[in-house]
Structure formats: structure tokens, C-alpha cells
């Protein structure tokens, strides 16, 4: 009998280019046989189309892409990870012998699309939530092999916390969470489960009681507040869809009942099927959201890689597929949402507001060696939040 196994590419297979589409392996073989094995190209990473209604996206996954390119005979130019970008705006350019990185395209695009799509959705959720807390609870929707990558991307997009235990090891971030229904069901008594939780974790993590397991949310929220008193930080409503009706009414009823009993400081968290619309509907009556699937399976930011220049007779010749913009490019920023794209090496025109454009494109890898310091996930998150702040200011005109 065959032993069950996990179907995961190991890191060596990814870094070596074995995790690829067969046509790239064949391309390498053909180019070698045809005497074109040493041809140098510049390949550009770009998103030519966005999901409907999306004006911007958050570039994420750069660190993982760079990990694949280190040690190869390439130079890599890129905008910083966390940059808010618009459609058709160049993100990365890889320059080198094509044969040396052709087979990495599949994996590079995979990490960039995965991380950028998640980070972008997380950022949209964060914008919708305003100053309310957003926790990412979506790991159960994904293959476990990508848990650290998904938690990282959602943090980059701006969520306030992630639930993955591996985020401690890979990101240096302490995971956050409340309690599962399983804990309450095993006890068979929500009060016992909440007490034990508070007994073990009070002072270490905010005590948030899940209040929808056996009875009505209003009854369970009052039970939790009566039982735990000052120790209770908040309650979480993960009301099943079959019982939902109008979630806002349920939340308002719970808050009213808690206030009547004198529990004014108990925070309200809502989870289960939360997306941007639910957040907008509930944000003024709750303190935080647990968001899973809508971030874990976001609309796809369609990032592609295209050769845009080929080296011939000692110079670079612009050459690209139709529909794409030939020539290597660089990006300058006037302000968030107003970037200037120029031909590589060209000086940008002045900004409309008279400001000096700031160069966003940087050299990250020179001849296979990292030459730019990589920021922490927290630093990238701050960069994203400051850009989102500018976007929001721009939208409200304030
Ligand atoms: C919550 C909810 C979803 C999780 C969070 C993510 O889980 O029921 O399963 O939500 P979303 O994907 O719908 O956004 P818990 O209440 O912790 O789940 P459990 O029933 O395992 O206790």
C-alpha cells in the first residue's frame, strides 16, 4: 500500500528552478543547442490588468523572489516591497543571461502573485476597517506549506495581527487569536472553557470569549462578562450563517445588553464570512474583525514577466510581445498614485506639483549579490499604511 505523503515542492527545488513549467526547461535546452545560450535580456515584471474596481495594488513577495535570484548571474532592479502601484507600472526588472533565470519565471511569478494578491486584499480590508482591528484568520483556507508566506503578505497589507504559530519563527511576530468552538464543545460548558482560558492566559493575551456556541449571543456575552468581570477584554461573535439575519442588529443588541449590565468596556469582535462590505456595515459598532477566506483567496493581481529588451551587438534593443511596452523602465514617484515611468537611465520630467520626483526603482541584486538592505515585515507594513493614509486623504480631500 502506498504511504500517504505531502505534495510540496521543497525549498531546494524552488530555488534551483526545478519547480517550473516544462516549456521553460525546453526553452533553455533549445537556446543552448541553437547557440543562443549566452543571450542577455531584460525581463520586466508588471501587472497589465487588475480585478474590476481596483485602482491600485500592494507589491509583495519581493524578498522571496530575490531569494531565488541570489547567486545567479543577474542584476535585479525593483520598486520596494510594499509599494502601492497602478496597472501597467513596472515592478521588477531582471537583467542577465536568459538561460540562467528562464526556469525561475514560474516560481517568481507564483510568489509575487500570491503575496501581492493577498497583501492587496488585506490593504483594502484595512482601509474599509479604518481604525478597527483586523486579524487574519485565513490559514485554514490554504495549503499549510504557504502559511508563513500568507501571514507575511497579510501583515504587509496592513492587518494588525495573524494567527499562525509559525509567524513567530519566520516573521518574528507573536501570533494572535481567541478560542475555537472546539474548546467549548469539549468542555460541554462555555463557562468552564472561558474560565480555563482566563486562568491560563490572563495577562499574556487579551481574554476574548467566543459567545455563539450553544445559546444566543446576548445571553452568552452576559454570561462571559458576569463570569470573568475585569478579566474579560472582549467577546467574539462568529454567528453561523444559518442564524445571522442582520448581523448589525445582533451586535447592537449584545452591546446594549452589556451596557445595561454595566459592562461598558467589553470589546466586540466579529468573524466568519467577513469581507469589505460587511466591514463597512459593521465598523462603527464593533472593535475588530477576524477575516479569513476573503483575504486568503483574494481576487488575482495578474502579474506577468516579459522580455522587454535583448542585448545585440553590445547594446540593448527594445523588443517585446505585442500588447506590452518594449524597453526597460524605471519608476519615479511624485506622490502616492502619481508615479512617472521613464526609460531606464532617463531623467524624469518635473512633477505636476513642482516637486522633485523620487526614484522608486532600486538595484537590489548585482551579479547575484544582494546590495540593498531588506526591511522587516513591520517596516514594510508601516510603509504600506503610510501610503494608504495618503490615498485615503486624497479620496476625502482632507
Ligand atoms: C472563524 C470562522 C472561520 C474563520 C474564523 C475565518 O473560525 O468560522 O472559519 O473566517 P472566514 O474564512 O469565514 O473569514 P472559528 O470560529 O475560530 O472556527 P471554529 O468553528 O473552528 O471554532
Identify the notable features of this structure and list them briefly.
398 residues; alpha/beta; nicotinate phosphoribosyltransferase; TIM Barrel; 2 domains; binds ligand PCP
Description:
This protein is α/β, with parallel strands linked by helices and about 400 residues long. It folds into two domains: about 10-120 and about 300-390, nicotinate phosphoribosyltransferase (Alpha-Beta Barrel), CATH 3.20.140; about 130-295, TIM Barrel. Helices cover about 35% and strands about 20% of the residues. The chain is built from 14 helices and 18 strands. Strands 13-12-1-5-3-17-18 form a seven-stranded antiparallel beta sheet. A six-stranded parallel beta sheet has the order 7-6-11-10-9-8. Strand 6, helix 6 (about 145-155) and strand 7 (about 160) form a beta-alpha-beta unit. The longest helix has 25 residues, at about 105-130. It is elongated. The chain starts with 10 loop residues before the first helix and ends with a helix. Ligand PCP binds near residues 180, 238, 273, 274 and 294. Ligand PCP binds near residues 181, 238, 290 and 292.
Short description:
By secondary structure, the chain is α/β, with parallel strands linked by helices. It folds into two domains: 11-118 and 300-390, Alpha-Beta Barrel (nicotinate phosphoribosyltransferase); 128-296, Aldolase class I (TIM Barrel), CATH 3.20.20.
Amino acid at each position: 500500500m502506498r504511504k500517504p505523503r505531502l505534495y510540496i515542492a521543497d525549498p531546494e527545488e524552488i530555488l534551483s528552478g526545478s519547480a517550473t513549467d516544462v516549456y521553460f526547461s525546453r526553452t533553455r535546452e533549445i537556446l543552448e543547442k541553437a547557440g543562443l545560450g549566452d543571450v542577455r535580456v531584460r525581463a520586466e515584471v508588471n501587472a497589465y490588468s487588475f480585478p474590476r474596481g481596483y485602482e491600485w495594488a500592494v507589491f509583495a513577495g519581493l524578498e522571496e523572489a530575490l531569494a531565488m535570484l541570489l547567486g545567479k548571474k543577474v542584476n535585479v532592479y525593483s520598486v520596494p516591497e510594499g509599494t502601492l502601484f497602478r496597472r501597467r507600472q513596472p515592478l521588477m526588472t531582471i537583467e542577465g543571461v536568459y538561460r540562467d533565470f528562464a526556469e525561475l519565471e514560474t516560481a517568481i511569478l507564483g510568489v509575487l502573485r500570491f503575496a501581492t494578491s493577498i497583501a492587496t486584499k488585506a490593504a483594502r480590508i484595512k482601509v474599509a476597517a479604518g481604525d478597527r482591528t483586523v486579524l487574519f484568520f485565513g490559514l485554514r483556507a490554504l495549503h499549510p506549506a504557504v502559511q508563513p508566506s500568507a501571514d507575511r503578505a497579510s501583515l504587509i497589507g496592513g492587518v494588525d495581527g495573524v494567527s499562525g504559530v509559525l509567524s513567530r519563527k519566520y516573521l518574528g511576530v507573536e501570533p494572535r487569536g481567541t478560542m475555537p468552538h472546539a474548546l467549548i464543545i469539549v468542555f460541554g460548558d462555555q463557562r468552564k472553557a472561558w474560565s480555563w482560558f482566563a486562568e491560563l492566559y490572563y495577562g499574556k493575551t487579551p481574554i476574548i470569549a467566543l459567545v455563539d456556541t450553544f445559546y444566543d449571543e446576548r445571553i452568552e456575552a452576559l454570561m462571559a462578562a458576569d463570569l470573568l468581570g475585569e478579566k474579560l477584554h472582549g467577546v467574539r461573535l462568529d454567528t453561523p450563517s444559518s442564524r445571522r439575519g442582520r448581523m448589525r442588529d445582533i451586535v447592537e443588541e449584545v452591546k446594549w445588553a452589556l451596557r445595561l449590565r454595566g459592562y461598558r468596556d467589553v470589546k466586540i469582535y466579529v468573524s466568519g464570512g467577513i469581507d469589505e462590505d460587511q466591514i463597512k456595515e459593521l465598523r462603527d459598532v464593533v472593535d475588530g474583525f477576524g477575516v479569513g477566506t476573503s483575504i486568503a483567496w483574494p481576487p488575482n493581481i495578474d502579474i506577468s514577466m516579459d522580455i522587454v529588451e535583448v542585448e545585440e551587438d553590445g547594446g540593448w534593443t527594445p523588443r517585446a510581445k505585442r500588447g506590452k511596452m518594449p524597453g526597460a523602465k524605471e519608476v519615479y514617484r511624485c506622490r502616492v498614485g502619481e508615479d512617472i515611468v521613464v526609460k531606464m537611465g532617463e531623467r524624469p520630467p518635473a512633477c505636476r506639483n513642482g516637486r522633485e520626483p523620487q526614484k522608486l526603482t532600486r538595484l537590489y541584486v548585482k551579479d547575484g549579490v544582494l546590495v540593498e538592505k531588506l526591511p522587516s515585515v513591520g517596516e514594510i507594513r508601516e510603509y504600506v499604511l503610510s501610503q494608504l493614509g495618503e490615498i485615503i486623504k486624497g479620496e476625502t480631500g482632507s
